[in-house]
Amino acid sequence: MIKGTISEKKQKSLYEQDYHLWLITTANQLEENNIQDLDIHNLLEEIESMGRSEKNGLQSNLQIVLMHLLKYKYQPEKRSNSWRYTILEHRDRIAITLENSPSLKSYVGEIFDKCYQKARKKAATETGLPLNKFPSDSPFTIENTLNEDYLPE
């Protein structure tokens, strides 16, 4: 029992002092099935954090795509290759995330309306157009938004 407490303190210290070394040590412990020496508390926090990061990245990329689609649709005179590139780049990021974590596909549906509302406000701020220039409900479907060939004309 005392040995476990010392090991736990040692691991927490390692986590705080050298994160990369903690990762290597934790991976080795898992590979060797050395469960008793694992820093479970920090390992769980890291796993939960990874899930949050995936979701946050997905949400951010979706907002960027939606904002640029709005700008593209409602400011046709200012369309540029830069806008098209940004749309393509962030669609690619979303596609990679969904390819690596297919279980997040349903999450896109959960956050789509919220992302659209944020994108709408950002588009209004960036373009200087009034917020009511952009519809309250998304003029784009999820499928259009994620389709690498779709641009609103």
UniProtKB/TrEMBL annotation:
Pfam families the record matches: DUF29
Say which domain of life the source belongs to: Bacteria
Q: Which InterPro entries match?
A: DUF29
Query: What is the protein's given name?
Result: DUF29 domain-containing protein
**Native source organism of the sequence:** Gomphosphaeria aponina SAG 52.96 = DSM 107014
